[in-house]
Each structure stands twice: as structure tokens, then as C-alpha cells.
Amino acid sequence: MNFQIEFTRAPIVAPAREVSKEIGAQVDFWGIVREREQGRAIAGLCYEAHEPMARAMLAKILNELSALHDCDEVYFIHRLDFVAVGEASVLVRARARHRQAALRLTEELLNRLKADVPIWKQHVAPR
Amino acid sequence: MNFQIEFTRAPIVAPAREVSKEIGAQVDFWGIVREREQGRAIAGLCYEAHEPMARAMLAKILNELSALHDCDEVYFIHRLDFVAVGEASVLVRARARHRQAALRLTEELLNRLKADVPIWKQHVAPR
């Protein structure tokens, strides 16, 4: 499985869908900042990461998941610094021959992201 | 839950991502024609639907799934007639407050689509 991991401080833009004759399913998952966190209104979230550790952990997780779910390609991009309500903080793209592998890998990657990857968020209050 | 069901004879283009303060997760699922079906090389697939029945069945399925998975919006578009290898035959977009609802609804909708919706495909052999 090929994968690519990126961090960016600019708005996330989906790459064009590459044409492949072997890919039957592509999942694009967008994680978006909502206007309330734990009941409080926010202006956005500020994300920080330990980038080398986060990359290493994501690579480890993706290697583990690739043994469980037969995906061909995964693209992961996470935004850092301030992300306003309504904007995306993360995009995961999983491409596979069959839909179940792409959907399951995406779900498990997101669960592991929250649990194990050193990326932190802080609420930014509205003015 | 709001939903929209479309059939098209033109290539599928993803609508722009609408900004909402309540949506925390968006799943875009692309189903793409692969170059082999049951081991045989194909040029593409030709899709036919009984459109009124397919719409009614999809609406019924979406109403059932909305009771199980707390999604806000679902957009479903399926292509008809010839779809070449590498092109998308279907796009499902599910938007929800939380990722699990969007992922699960997408997966179940795709399972039900294959099982219950009157859309048929025929292999088109290469020249």
C-alpha cells in the first residue's frame, strides 16, 4: 500500500481524482470544525502537532491497517494552526479495489488518529 | 435528514463542499469502474435503471437509514448508459455532526444499493 502524509497551514484542497484501472472505490473523508465544542461556541480550533512523531505514528498505523484492509493508496493531510468553524481540519483519501476495504481503513485510521497521534487542539473563543 | 437523488448520463462531478457550522464530517464515496469484471477485461459498464422505482427505493432506504444514523444530508448521484473504465458510476456524499454516522450510513446505503435498487449493469467488451 502506498501512502502519503502531509501537514499544512493552508486550507486543505482535495487533489484531483487520479485515474486508475484497478481502483473500484475511493473514500474522501473530511473532518470539519463545528461551531460548538462540548457545548461552548467557538470561533475555531487551533491545532498543534509534534510533526516527526505524528508522521512516524501515522506511518506505523497505516502499515498495521494495510495488513487488515486491502487498500492501494492512502492520502492523509492535516491542517495545523487556526482552523475556523466550517473549514476542514483533516482529509483522508483511501483508494481500493473494493469499497469495504476503503471504508473500514478510513474509519479505523480516524479512530487511531484521535487516540494515538500527537496532534492537539485548543478551542479559540469568539471575540 | 435531507437527501437528494439524481441520475445522470454525463460524467459525475462533485458539488462544492457547502459550508455549515453543524457538520463535523463529510464522506464522499466514489464507485469507479475497474478494468476487470469477474476476471474478464472490459471497456466499461453500461448501466440501466428503472428510474421511478430506483428513486422510490432509494428514498425508502434513506428514510430507514436516517433512523439508524444521525446524518444531516445525503447526496446520491448515479450515472447511466456507458461508463468507461476509470470513470465513476456513483457518488454518495453523507454529511453529519459525527464521523461514525456518515461512514456507517454510506456503507449501508451502498450495500442496499447493490441488493435492492433496480439498477443493472452489462459488461461492454473491449473492441
Description:
2 copies of one chain form a homodimer. The first copy, chain A, has one domain (2-7, 23-124): Alpha-Beta Complex (Aldehyde Oxidoreductase, domain 3). Chain A has helices at residues 51-68, 99-116, and strands spanning 2-8, 25-32, 36-37, 40-41, 44-49, 71-79, 81-84, 88-96, 119-124. Helices cover 28% and strands 42% of the residues of chain A. A 4-stranded mixed β-sheet of chain A has the order 1-6-8-2, with helices on one face. The first copy, chain A, has a 3-stranded antiparallel β-sheet with strand order 7-5-9. A two-stranded antiparallel sheet of chain A has the order 3-4. The model of chain A has no long low-confidence stretch (mean pLDDT 96). In chain A, helix 1 runs antiparallel to helix 2 (99-116). Chain A is built from 2 helices and 9 strands. Chain A has 127 residues and is α+β, with helices and mostly antiparallel strands. The first copy, chain A, is globular and about 50 Å long.
